[in-house]
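Inputs:
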Amino acid sequence: MSKKLNRFGTAALAAIMAASVLAGCGGDNSSSTADNSESGNTASEGSTVAEPTKEHLDITCYLWGDKPNQMDDVIAEFESRTADELNMSIDFNWAPQSDYTNNIKLKLSAGEEVDMCFDAPWMNMNTFIAQGNYRDLTSYFHNPDYPGLEAAFSEEFMSNNLMGENSDTVYGIPLTQSFGEGGMIFIRGDLREKYGLEPVTDLESFEAYLQAIVENEPSMIPFVMNGDGSYGALSIFDAQTPEKAIGKIEAGLWDVELASGVTATLYIQDYEVKDCVISGEPASASANFPAPYNTTDLSSYEAVRDWYEKGYIEKDVVTRQDAQATFTSGKGASFMWGAAQYNSVLSSLTQSVEGAELEIWNYDPLTANDVLGMKKGSYTAWNFICIPVTTSDEKTDRIMEFFDWMFSSTENHDLFEWGIEGTNFTAVDEDQYDYPEDLDLSTNYNFPGYELTWNPNFIRYPVGYPDDVLQIMKNANNPDVYYDPMLSGFRFNGDPVKNQLANPDFATAQTRRSNLSLGIFEDVAAENAAIDEEVTNNKTLQEDIADIKEEVIKQAEVYLEKRKAQDEENGTVYPTVADLEAQLGE
Amino acid sequence: MKKEAVAVAPHKKQGFFGEIRQNFWLYMLIMPCILFAIVFKYIPMVGIVIAFQDYNPIKGMFGSEFVGLENFKYFFRGSQWLQITFNTLYLNVLFIITGTIASVVIAIMITELGKNLFVRFNQSVMIFPNFISYAVVAMFAQAFIGSDDGYVNRWIEMFGGNPISFYSESSVWPLILVIIRIWKGAGYGAIVYMAAIVGIDNGVYEAARIDGASRMQTIFRITVPMLKDTVILLTLLSVGNIFYGDFGMIYTLVGDNSMLFSTTDVIDTYVFRSIRTSGSMGMSAAVGLYQSLIGFFLVIGVNALAKKFSPESAIF
């Protein structure tokens, strides 16, 4: 008997151990239900206070990144404020950016509830629209039943964010604030003064600063840039010659991003596509472009190489992951980043480097001189909130009512973007914000507005920023600084040519070409020619590129026909080099 | 222990159910493992169908359009798939051979040293790197082999040599990857071999010592031959994954550095780069299926070889 018991015990123990492994797998689920019930509770508390007119609704929303600090407080505040009007709870789910796209696919595959989610053309959006997975939201905009949306999303704004086969459908709520990045160079003012240099105002004085660092601070990286070339030296050099970019569009050459990292240049004359070249193609592909655009201009790349040789850029730049952290830890003497990041850079720099002073240089002569209408930019959003077709009609209406509520007043909008007034921020005037005294910024509410709340009509600027930083930020949000490029509303649907786009050689050629912008190749022209030759001799790749081009041209022509009518109606005039020179000459 | 052994020993011909009845509790013991394999290994195989579909998550596995072998084509569309496949195989063969040798050497050394605090401490130190993520290893690597202030280059300069720009020199990377791999995995891999050594009957060593065998002789005549089965078994298991490039390792260490592609680009990084924009689940499933199928046939092949030359070490 005891022997039998013993055996039973062993088997049971094994079963329990296995069960505990299984329970480990299910851990995620149980915690999310706990979350649900928690938010459900707070909602019901709210609803008992004010008698609801609508049935209570739970909305599940998927966003990426880390869960913001104090998010639960803000949601509780939202629920108590709107128990009467909206009577809903929103359950925000967060996933790391790298997992997010797959996460959404898996949730939808598993039939889990995804009532609304963040998506973007650089994520699943184009494919999902082509597969019919997102709801058509067109009817909610310019609709008097949704006055908040009507006011916040002008016709001009929406016309650049239409998608679908005929580019005439709203498949997502566009989230954007600014027209451009508003990039600038962060500099260590204390080091500049230490080496007796004048403030940096142009490329020459910046190079003098970098040279001083090379000579005096051997352990520092003079200019830190990321290994993928983003926020790198190339954009500084390109910005110094704005007439090149304007000259290009005057000649009828318009760039458009097809997919993340894939750009097509269309040669358009009188709203008809004459030719098309895709990034990664050899120089010979642009033979039909008007001179001088029929040859590859490598001068900016050579300038980067020059910096590399002088030691302004580190030798192993290709491995650099986080330029900001390198700069703020005191290992770097300058780097490029968005103006909006000024505060976070300043606080982490002064925390880790004693006596550090932060200065900035606006490397873009156009915004530095307040030149109007010469920067490429439009109300083309790169971030959206989409609603999957699995969400019911009723829920969709209620979700859109939520956005209508949020965009109907600054107060509502600020709750999600900035948190609870008085606790997380203080509103100053119409368009500024400050923080209450003794507020710990590291634990303050930090919602990523680009995932839910960004809108050109609801922008607040920080109190106390230096004027030159504010100038960049304001210029980035000022429509007059920008011209609306001819292809601004053109969204390429890559689905028909997705096999061709997935040709691995395409990605390899592009990665190799983007490495040119790092300065790591001794002979830029030779490496460029080597890539050209390899691509030219690759027959399959040539065929694939031809297919992609055909599809791009086909889709662009549909768009351009619409655009032509639109431009004629609005009397759109595109900028010219003569205009630019006139303004810069003033 | 002994009682259980008695229960297994008498083996009469009784058929399937007789066998089950005879060893009921032993089968119950293994039941959770069988269930685990069924739930997590066999049922998910249905998902292979995604490799043949234009997969749409909302329509799901049973509603998506069937596209035949379309998803497999893109991998072979590229001109470099042979080079990439070679790199994957070459690096993995290097990892398996060097890793096995290093693990066996560590296991023998530690067991020969006996058991004291110092040995235990060293053993822990050797196992520890296994728990460091490759993102951190990549930072270590940069500190060691960086061009501007890497230790290795400082040493080279100290002895009057010219610094090497490791991050643009593709030929040294197989060696770098092998060293990192050994540093990270060999200590942990030694655990299994140590268990095998402990399992060797002590009487054999005693007899050898009485006959006057030296320490080196006992190692090479007893320990190493006795480890053969374990080595073959573990090699067989790793051959199944030989077509999988170690993405976590190679992508964090090399990233998109095109200057190192010729020796470090493996199937997984190549595929990642080409479909990171489209993110097609069908295409990634197709490549995964291709890798597992080849791995499957390799395991069968190597097992057949093992059966021929050393029948008792084959898995099946």
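The longest helix of chain A spans residues 2-49. Flag for discussion at group meeting.
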